[in-house]
Structure prediction request, 255 residues.
Amino acid sequence: MGSGARRSGAAALLLCGALAVAAGGCGSSSPDVGLIAPAVAPVSPKHVSARTQALRAGTLIAQVKRSTGVRDAPGGRVLARISPQTEYHSPTILPVLRRRGAWYAVVTAALPNNRVGWISAHARLAFYTADYRIDVSLRHRNVVVRHGQQVIARFPVAIGAPATPTPTGRYAITDKLFTHDQASPYGCCILALSAHQPHIPQGWGGGDRIGLHATAHPETIGSAVSFGCLRAPQAEMRRLVAIVPLGTVVTIHAT
Prediction:
């Protein structure tokens, strides 16, 4: 085997593993679902100054330009470190929930579910606005996407089975992943979320990250059948991947 072929094979293996982690708990019997490519993740084209932050929670996003610590409180203990790129090679872009002095409260996959982390305003950050938000109702098994105050999409989803429920809380879109295979258990594409599945099924080797993704089994949409991920129609996922930026807040409600 030539060196080029070896590099290609290694890349395919690595990316298959990345997909398994991103879509972990989604209900496939095998995490090996084929080659993916990470999105060159867009942010809103509207760049803003760190001094102009009179924005409601979720509309301001921060791109991490240099490795920085995430703390349990302003000036507190370091809980984790985040790099300029995610594990799937997208830019690390975090929603800013609030500011306290020289500190920003952010949502990150580096922390457990529903744990807010704090990063310093002195870290190397770039700020953007992204006036999108996504709400998921587990009771009604549907998704509502808003841009500003306008509802731009509404569609049904499959949710986690009773033994592997979809976790509730406020999360963020961390990555956009593409399977390039319509027959994939994950359909065309995935929006990886910062959420983690605390109830890993026995024998599952695909990681604990939750995703909102398409599916090759549309008949399951509307049911409680997954390992925790949200399965959506292909057309809706294609649209979301195209328009919704990284760092968008996704709130998963029980009701």
